[in-house]
């Protein structure tokens, strides 16, 4: 299918990502990719990949062995294929399909997912169905994500999610119900005076029950500028 609204943004190192009005990305993608700390030998998957931003950030910053980028919406899937061709990346495998039906060919070391944050039938939906699917649990739930991760992760493999703080109990309940033990939790705040607006959670398949709560991450410092950690995540400290 031909699209007329594709534009490109540079991620650095010759990597460009294709975006459209429906399928864009935000700060949460950079935060989750950094939180996951993929390793070079890892076999990975990114569920609900959208434009493929997290898979491409994993490639840029960590160079894992292979990453499956799974997306149910065809336009987003097509965007990623354009990005991979333009950036000459062959270690990301775009997969068009439903995560509820998918299982990796080989057991995975790491799965990341920036899922829809809102429970279906809560809050106003966007006029665009594509945007609503990305924001609301219309096509998959947190439980679906954790069940899919259970099928494909190796024992000791990691699932890293981001979501809104009010979904924390849902995430931990879904993880445990699928044999994935919550191991790390980090809250993200817009500045030191604000409550958290995002949570980052890591679970391990078959892990023992011990949860490490990490120091808060502040997007902006008290003076209003980007925090040193965000400068590191955005690689602004390298320019």
Automatic annotation (TrEMBL):
<dbReference type="InterPro" id="IPR007848">
    <property type="entry name" value="Small_mtfrase_dom"/>
</dbReference>
<feature type="domain" description="Methyltransferase small">
    <location>
        <begin position="29"/>
        <end position="123"/>
    </location>
</feature>
<protein>
    <recommendedName>
        <fullName>Methyltransferase small domain-containing protein</fullName>
    </recommendedName>
</protein>
<dbReference type="InterPro" id="IPR029063">
    <property type="entry name" value="SAM-dependent_MTases_sf"/>
</dbReference>
<dbReference type="InterPro" id="IPR050210">
    <property type="entry name" value="tRNA_Adenine-N(6)_MTase"/>
</dbReference>
<dbReference type="GO" id="GO:0008168">
    <property type="term" value="F:methyltransferase activity"/>
</dbReference>
<dbReference type="Pfam" id="PF05175">
    <property type="entry name" value="MTS"/>
</dbReference>
């Amino acid at each position: 299918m031909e699209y007329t609204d594709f534009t490109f943004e540079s991620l650095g190192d010759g990597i460009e990502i294709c975006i459209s009005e429906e399928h864009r990305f935000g700060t949460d993608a950079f935060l989750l990719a950094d939180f996951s700390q993929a390793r070079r030998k890892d076999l990975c998957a990114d569920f609900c990949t959208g434009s493929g931003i997290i898979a491409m950030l994993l490639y840029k910053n960590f160079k894992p062995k292979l990453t499956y980028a799974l997306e149910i919406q065809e336009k987003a899937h097509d965007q990623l294929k354009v990005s991979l061709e333009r950036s000459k990346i062959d270690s990301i495998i775009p997969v068009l399909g439903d995560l509820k039906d998918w299982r990796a060919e080989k057991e995975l070391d790491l799965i990341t997912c920036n899922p829809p944050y809102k429970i279906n039938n809560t809050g106003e939906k966007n006029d665009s169905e594509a945007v609503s699917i990305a924001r609301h649990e219309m096509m998959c739930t947190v439980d679906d994500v954790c069940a899919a991760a259970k099928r494909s992760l190796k024992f000791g493999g990691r699932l890293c999610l981001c979501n809104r703080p009010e979904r924390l109990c849902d995430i931990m309940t879904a993880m445990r119900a699928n044999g994935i033990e919550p191991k790390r939790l980090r809250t993200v705040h817009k500045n030191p005076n604000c409550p958290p607006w995002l949570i980052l959670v890591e679970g391990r398949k078959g892990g023992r029950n011990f949860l490490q709560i990490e120091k808060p991450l502040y997007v902006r410092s008290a003076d209003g500028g980007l925090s040193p950690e965000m400068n590191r995540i955005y690689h602004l400290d390298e320019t």
